[in-house]
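hiii, so i know i said id send this last week but things got crazy w the move. better late than never?? heres the sequnce for the chain we talked about at the cafe, plus the structure i predicted for it. fair warning i was half asleep when i ran it
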Amino acid sequence: MQPDLEATAERVFAALADPSRRAVLAALAEHGPATATDLADRLPITRQAIAKHLALLSDAGLVIAEPGERRRIRYRLDSAPMQVAQQFLAAMARNWDGPLDALRTRLNSENGKAHERR
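okay and structure toks below
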């Protein structure tokens, strides 16, 4: 995988590691673009904490800040970094499939031989 794609995946995984950030993303996915104040009204998280989480999510590219009315910033989801992370996981899974299949075959073979000896 290319270094910049791997770095994007790493930022996404770091952002998703926190349950509060996952809750912010879920709220944006369910209700659409929102301000930090809107999110604080929906979630059991202070507005200040939401602002910090949004900054990290923005750094990871998962949300985009857009100017709204009365100088309020609205945040919306951006799925592109999530797609990069999914591609990273898919590539890892492909690399694991062969060795895992070989292990499964070996274990099944040995398990069959053990039953024959009984």
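btw Residues 67 and 73 are 5 Å apart (CA to CA). thought thatd interest u
miss u guys!!
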